[in-house]
Amino acid sequence: MTGSSPALAERPSPVTRSADWMVLGLAIVALMLGWLLRQQALYATETVQAGGLQLSVPAGSLPLGSNDTLGLLSPDGMAVRVNQLPLPPIGAEGGEGLVASRALKQAQAFDVYQAIGSQLADVAGIKAGILEYAYVTTGETNFFASELDIIHGYEALVPQGESLYVITLEAPESQWADVEALWPRLIESLRFSEVVQ
Fold this sequence. Notes:
Protein Transport Mog1p, Chain A; 2 domains; 7-stranded antiparallel β-sheet; 3-stranded antiparallel β-sheet
């Protein structure tokens, strides 16, 4: 028999193997560069001011059409909001009271709202409450939508004089890791032009 058998098939030459390794190496380098660019875009911030408050937000954020003191939407879909509200009535003093009051108010505003956790923190030198929450929303523009979106976020409740500043960072549940990565930096960046106790 003069035919060749599959077992005797030609082996790739050393040049072909090294070319395969070079292609694999280039693919790995390209993936790493893409990841680095995404990290840089995710963690790039710019400083904004709203109602006597200064904070760092994701770079390239666009204004939200909202009634918030400040409402921004980051390029990757995280919402940053600042609201200056009247301080709640007596009985809601301190971080725990502020968190409980806010959670009750939000539970009335959203059909399916859940306070996940809370803690006390020092924010811009002021004792504040931090609230982690989630709520379910449907697209307001499509009343027949069959898919529900879970929004997951944090709120810092910072009393300042007669006002309560509510600083919010939230995003769809699929982006929760991005929210968790940005939240500490956003809170650390908060500065009031004047601290009033």
